[in-house]
Design a protein that fits this description.
With 369 residues, the protein is mostly helical. The protein is 70% helix and 0% strand. It folds into 2 domains: 147 residues, no CATH class; 218 residues, no CATH class.
Amino acid sequence: MAVDPGMVDMILGTFRNMVAEIEGKKITGDAVDNMKAVLAQMEGLAKEMDDLASYSTKLANDGLFTKFSEWYGRALASQSSGSSSDEDLMARSLKAYEDSLNYLKQQPEHAHIVPVVQRVVDLGRSGVSYPVFLRMAEEEGAFMGLNSPHAGPVIAYDIYCAERMRTVERLPMLLSIQAKWKELVARSPFGYADPLEYELARQQIEWQHEPSLIRWKAIEDRWDRLIELVIDWVDSFCSFAPYDARWVDPDGNRAKTQLNIERTQECNPGRLKVREDIFYEYFGLRWNDIFTHETFVAKLKNKMIWYSDDSLALARDAHDRCVPGGKPEGDHIRRAEDIHASKRFKRPDMPTSEELTPVAFAEFLKSYK
């Protein structure tokens, strides 16, 4: 796989334009060759990697942005003179940073990076010589700021997305990453986390949390299916079953519809038993454990369980009757009929798609502090 091409275009677009500018001016030489080689390296990494965060961090860790800008400045300087004087290098480098700054200002999703590049531009405009500019930018941490992944807003956005989309199981991992990020920022004299140290820490935290996230999803998927088996089983005994999409034959064949209903009545108890045995073998959980387990409690609290409370209560009450050869009690069927007639089978306050959809990152940045 490769990094999303759209995101790569966003990151490398300015650098590609710089190369096109140099080619348009028919400038040649070692500086141009080196500049193109750096861009080729960045393009190659985009094809080799598949994670955007890791890709951008790799570019920063390897200093590719800075190397490209340096060679770009030298290439432009060579246009006006046979040698690259400090004055030329300062002017050309400043232009490169100013071009980058103007581009970033036009991209709302990069608003959090603008102040960092602005600081470099301000140093370049201060009138100092090129060697002094390089020394000051290094001593004041401006170059470190350029190389930093600036993950603070990104992590905060990930946390916001997890809360918005009700994927609360990811919050412990994301909050740990945020805490580590803040620790690294506080440790730095310039307020920028070391990109390599942050990337290693992030990967370690994600590695530590991955097993619990996989287990969470596995448990959630399995109890959801157990509940569905019981509810379908009870409903299959109701008068509305022959007209319900769960059993109606696509061709309208009533005999096949009846066979579908009977299959549910006869097979769901056995399917339930097999799945419950596997559920216990792998996770040590029984049917009654479902409703106090953290996965169920969290999903219910966030209104993310499709079934209504009435449907869940019916499933719990009818569960013990769902055995091979068994049938729901008359009261179970009456309650199922009533739930269906009043359309109370689905949770009425379940979040809408709009309520679960996060705002775009650029919009989020407007309120980020």
